[in-house]
């Protein structure tokens, strides 16, 4: 067993940290206040290769492993959740799901421009009437010759207004014996006719990010854009969540670290009752808790990164990592505000933004309640991973770095 | 074309420096590539992008200095060489220049040698000039931009008095300043290459020289006395009011 990061991983960490701290940290407050995405951020992340970090070089990616993806997410979210969200939906929900379930032709056509950062992808599953209950979705896809005709609405979709492609799950067979068996997944070109989309405003957090809606009205999606077989949509959506949740877990770990770092710094400087507050035990207790949570969250997501590298299914481990890290990050941000006193309540000190941002992670990509059900299901033997037609692809350094 | 960049490993700028038994200590703070030298690597890579070149990064230092070289490789340098020898403990700028010049000769065919303006630890800024002298090549220091044309290099020097444009025939030695452009981040491909690269180590024997005798003798080392500088925040209702108070203060203190 080896818990150390390789020199390669350390360099990834340092490079992403430098980008986030140097370029984004100085401007994030302003965009969060304005409730606007940083206009250059997607392009810049593309230039740096972040949008293709963990895809094989032959599909236009950077050929790094899954742990590198996690490390990048930790660094990005230590500055702002909206950066990590890009990784979650573009790399996680959309790209890695294509890598797992797409045909060779689909990977070449659709994954390559995403991995190169030329196109942006997102994942559109939730609807106004459902989120947790994936099998209950109402958007329909009706087969008509060599096309599917999509109708319905997806809501709360990150990057809805920015993306070029969305991985969309819709109902293809309303008569299926079980509702979950009537779903299929498509890679939809969001510039298609019949699509209207927009951003939602008034979010508690993620204010420098884009969360929106996509409306489909008789949208013609070519047969070649169906990912997997008809009826595999539920399984594909669950695979997407496995990938996405990993990035959320790793990112939330970054918020715990940000809270810990800010709190230790401030506690050493701030004096109350004649000594630095770091010397008051109740403050020490908060900091100790943040440190412990940080280490646990990091070990949990590192474990998932390692399992993913081996190509193992790790829904269970991912669910644990996601639930723990997001809840711990919320606690950490909240306690960091407390350590900072009144200053913590101001946006100048970042922690209130982290708190607002991280709150959403306890809801999306499977709420904490849903993660609890998953974990109980495994513990009680009510849930088992059945073999998939397309298992998650293992990381193979040689294969993944072969030139196109 | 071949470009050699000379880089140094130094304590991180955030390191808390202390003095123990006449030696500077930086605790467990990480060692990094000298920030000014990142600009040197950037300058070399810019020329590589423009004209095509092999960029060789060299560094004198202990085994840990490989990390600085790896950083240069990850940014896009083609080769890296560590110069390490137990006899190189107490190098002054003059000694370092002697060793670097020997290494540059051994590499052979260098058209340009690029340095950062100075190191952030010893900070003499003498090594580029001394290396140029040792090589017998022209020195174009404090370059803010570089143009290569027909076997000549033309640089705009960023100096206190303003800008100065100078040129020289290649081969030449340059030191660069920040106006060269922000150093690029390592690319993922570079990171992969760097982490797998084997970096050769050259000893003094490999360079065919003996340990340089320092010209500068260090007699004593002490920390500067800490200065008590009062800090005053100027408050006011409006920007104009604050500015007015500030101007009054500056005039009263006779700063202007
Ligand atoms: C900022 C943001 C970004 C998002 N981005 C995306 C995106 O990119 N793509 C996408 O598809 N979706 C996205 N979502 C939507 C998100 O995935 C859903 O909000 C989430 O799945 C929860 O669904 P819901 O809101 O419909 O809540 P519901 O499913 O209606 O749940 C309401 C409450 O009931 C609980 N609950 C539900 N079922 C059970 C149960 N069986 N037992 C116990 N408790 C239960 C839930 O945990 C929750 O507390 C995003 C949401 C937000 C806030």
Report the span from N to C terminus of chain B: 50 Å
The first-level CATH class of chain B is given as Alpha Beta
**What profile does the largest beta sheet of chain A have?**
4 strands, mixed
Dominant shape of chain B: globular
DSSP summary: helix tally of chain B: 7
The domain count of chain A comes to 3
Strand content of chain A: 5-15%
The biggest beta sheet of chain B is recorded as:
9 strands, mixed
- What series of H and E elements makes up the topology of chain A? HHHHHEEEEEEEEHEEHHHHH
Number of folding domains of chain B? Answer: 1
Q: SSE string of chain B, helix = H, strand = E?
A: EEEEEHEHEHEHEEEEHEHH
> What's the count of strands of chain B?
13
Q: Mean of the pLDDT scores of chain B? A: 93
> CATH superfamily membership of the largest domain in chain A, which one?
Butyryl-CoA Dehydrogenase, subunit A, domain 3
Number of helical segments of chain A?
11
For the record, give the distance between the C-alpha atoms at the N and C termini of chain A, rounded to a whole number.
34 Å
Low-pLDDT segments of chain B: none
Q: What oligomeric state is this?
A: heterodimer
> Bound compounds, please?
flavin-adenine dinucleotide
Unreliable stretches of chain A: none
Explained architecture:
The complex is a heterodimer of chains A (404) and B (256). In chain A, 50% of the residues lie in helices and 14% in strands. Chain A has 404 residues and is of the alpha+beta class. In chain A, helix 3 (66-79) packs antiparallel against helix 4 (81-101), helix 8 (315-340) runs antiparallel to helix 9 and helix 8 (315-340) packs across helix 10. The two termini of chain A are 34 Å apart. By secondary structure, chain B is α/β, with parallel strands linked by helices. Chain B has a single domain, classed as Rossmann fold. In chain B, strand 10 (152-159) and strand 11 (162-169) form a beta hairpin. In chain B, helix 2 (66-75) packs antiparallel against helix 5 and helix 3 crosses helix 4. The A-B interface holds A 6-8, 11-12, 14-15, 18-19, 48-49, 53, 62-64, 68, 401 and B 70-71, 74, 185-189, 191-192, 194-195. The complex binds flavin-adenine dinucleotide (FAD).
């Amino acid at each position: 067993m080896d818990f150390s990061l390789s020199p390669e991983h350390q360099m990834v960490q340092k490079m992403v940290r430098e980008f986030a701290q140097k370029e984004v940290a100085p401007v994030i407050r302003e965009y969060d206040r304005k409730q606007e995405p940083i206009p250059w951020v997607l392009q810049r992340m593309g230039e740096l290769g972040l949008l293709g970090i963990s895809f094989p070089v032959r599909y236009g990616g950077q050929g790094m492993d899954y742990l590198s993806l996690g490390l990048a997410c930790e660094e990005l979210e230590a500055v702002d959740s909206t950066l990590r969200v890009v990784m979650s939906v573009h790399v996680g929900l959309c790209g890695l799901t294509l890598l797992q379930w797409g045909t060779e032709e689909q990977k070449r056509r659709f994954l390559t421009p995403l991995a190169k950062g030329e196109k942006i992808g997102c994942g559109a599953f939730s609807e106004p009437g459902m989120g947790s209950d994936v099998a209950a979705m109402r958007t329909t896809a009706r087969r008509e010759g060599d096309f599917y005709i999509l109708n319905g609405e997806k809501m709360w979709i990150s990057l809805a207004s920015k993306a070029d492609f969305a991985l969309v799950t819709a109902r293809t067979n309303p008569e299926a014996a079980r509702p979950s068996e009537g779903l299929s997944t498509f890679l939809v070109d969001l510039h298609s006719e019949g699509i209207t989309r927009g951003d939602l405003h008034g979010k508690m957090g993620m204010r420098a990010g884009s969360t929106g809606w996509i409306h489909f009205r008789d949208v013609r999606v070519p047969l070649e854009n169906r990912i997997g077989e008809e009826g595999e949509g539920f399984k594909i959506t669950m695979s997407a969540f496995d990938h996405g949740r990993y990035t959320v877990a790793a990112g939330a770990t970054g918020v715990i670290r940000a809270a810990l770092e800010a709190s230790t710094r401030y506690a050493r400087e701030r004096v109350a009752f004649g000594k630095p507050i770091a010397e008051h035990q109740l403050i020490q207790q908060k900091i100790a808790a943040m440190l412990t949570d940080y280490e646990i969250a990091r070990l949990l997501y590192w474990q998932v990164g390692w399992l993913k590298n081996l190509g193992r299914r790790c829904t269970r481990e991912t669910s644990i990592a996601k639930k723990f890290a997001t809840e711990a990050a919320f606690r950490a941000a909240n306690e960091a505000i407390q350590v900072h006193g009144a200053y913590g309540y101001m946006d100048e000190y970042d922690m209130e933004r982290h708190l607002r941002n991280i709150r959403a992670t306890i809801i999306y990509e499977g709420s904490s309640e849903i993660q609890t059900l998953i974990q109980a299901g495994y513990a009680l033997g009510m849930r088992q991973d059945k073999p998939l037609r397309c298992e998650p692809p293992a990381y193979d350094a040689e294969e993944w770095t072969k030139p196109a | 074309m071949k470009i050699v960049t000379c880089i140094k490993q130094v304590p991180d700028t955030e390191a808390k420096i202390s003095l123990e038994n006449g030696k500077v200590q930086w605790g467990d703070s990480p060692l990094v590539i000298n920030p000014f030298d990142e600009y040197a690597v950037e300058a070399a890579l810019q020329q590589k992008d423009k004209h095509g070149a092999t960029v060789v990064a060299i560094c004198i230092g202990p085994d840990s200095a490989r990390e600085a070289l790896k950083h240069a490789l990850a940014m896009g340098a083609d080769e890296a060489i560590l110069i390490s020898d137990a006899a190189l403990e107490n190098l002054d700028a003059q000694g370092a220049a002697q060793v670097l010049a020997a290494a540059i000769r051994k590499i052979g065919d260098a058209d340009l040698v690029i340095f950062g303006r100075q190191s952030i630890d010893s900070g003499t800024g003498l090594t580029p000039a001394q290396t140029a002298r040792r090589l017998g090549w022209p020195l174009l220091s404090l370059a803010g931009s570089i143009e290569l044309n027909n076997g000549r290099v033309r640089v705009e020097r960023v100096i206190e008095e303003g800008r100065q444009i100078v040129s020289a025939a290649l081969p030449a030695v340059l030191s660069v300043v920040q106006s060269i452009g922000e150093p690029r981040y390592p690319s993922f491909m570079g990171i992969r290459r760097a982490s797998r690269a084997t970096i050769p180590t050259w000893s003094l024997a490999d360079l065919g020289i003996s340990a340089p005798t320092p010209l500068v003798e260090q007699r004593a080392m002490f920390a500067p006395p800490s200065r008590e500088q009062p800090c005053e925040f100027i408050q006011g209702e409006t920007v104009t009011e604050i500015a007015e108070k500030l101007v009054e203060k500056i005039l009263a203190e006779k700063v202007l």
